[in-house]
Amino acid sequence: MGALNGRMSPLGFTALGTVEDWDKVMGQIVRHRFNPVDPAAGKETSFGWVQLTDPFETSFAKTNVFFGEHLVGLTFRYDSVQIPAGQFRLHLNKRFRDAKAERKGEELSKREMARMKDDLRAEWVRKVIPTIKLFEMVYHPATNRVWFFGKSKSVVETFLQIFHDTFGLSLQPDSAYTTALQSHGAKVAEKLLELDDVRFSVED
Amino acid sequence: MDLIKKIEATRQVGNEFLTWLFFRTASGTTGLLDTPQGPVELSFEDRISFVSPYASGDAQVLKGADLGESMDSLRAIAGGRLIDDAKVSIKFQEKRWEFVYSGSKFAPGGIKVPAVLADTELETVIERFDLLATLEQVMRSLYDSFLSLRLDEKAWQTEVANIRKWLQQ
Lengths: 204, 169
What we know:
The complex is a heterodimer of chains A (about 200) and B (about 170).
Chain A: E1 11-16, H1 22-31, E2 45-51, H2 62-65, E3 66-67, E4 71-80, H3 85-102, H4 110-127, E5 131-140, E6 145-148, H5 153-167, E7 170-173, H6 176-184, H7 186-193
Chain B: H1 3-9, H2 11-27, E1 32-33, E2 40-51, E3 60-63, H3 71-78, E4 82-92, E5 95-102, E6 107-112, H4 121-150, H5 153-168
Antiparallel strand pairs in B: 1-2, 2-3, 2-4, 4-5, 5-6
């Protein structure tokens, strides 16, 4: 939980623009709040906002979204049902064997096998407790800084989309180029693209 | 060129920045770097990873005490390598941050912020992110100093000459 304690390893972003209507944003946070995985509806993943300090709390008010005057804090919760592949394969093979034995050795068709696989997966999805992953996000609207405590490409891409949908702002990732762009403008940043590689070597 | 390609095309600038910081801290007499916010004491700690811009796979990792003054570090740079990431500490306004700075990612990670004195969860969040923002401001100021040299051809040639002279000493 890097945001609240321990060492911090955030990805840094700059929000492009400012929030004009915080009441609207509060509505969007509620709209994009986390809802549990619904196996009955065939959903194996679910993601959305929860409170920064409580991963099971999805009631939002400015008093639990704002930290002081300048920080907005939320946690991005990502739940997924993870079926252990090796275990699943063992149980599936047993079902195939049992079905074949019932039919006195007659081979199963590919379609039958696919249906049995889907049925078993649906059974397991209903039984497995979803894995919870939590990624904190803190946004400083006055400086446009956003810190996200997740690293994997798929999670970051999902976060960028949900941040945009919630706050109405795109995020620019930190880099040597974008930092120069923000501090000095496009003319200076473009010069970085024209630089020759530097060689400090003294062997020449 | 789209933004992602521009970011990728300039990743080495971050490595140059980190290597330049190493030179400035190791070659200075006080170890202090000037920023608009005040003097910063930056130290390279017990791990430095070097990368060669010319030969992928020609990486080198040094571990141990006093790497900021070690001959191995100087040899790596003199051999044409740049610093890819390093454990670094910063002392600024009587507070100390420890972190691993990645030049190519242009980002600090594993940041140990100075002790937080807050009593409540609310105050803790505010104070921790205030300390994180301070670290970012310091690093941005140092990067600005680097850019003003790096983008001035004459000033950069002089700086490179100084670095080579320092490496040969």
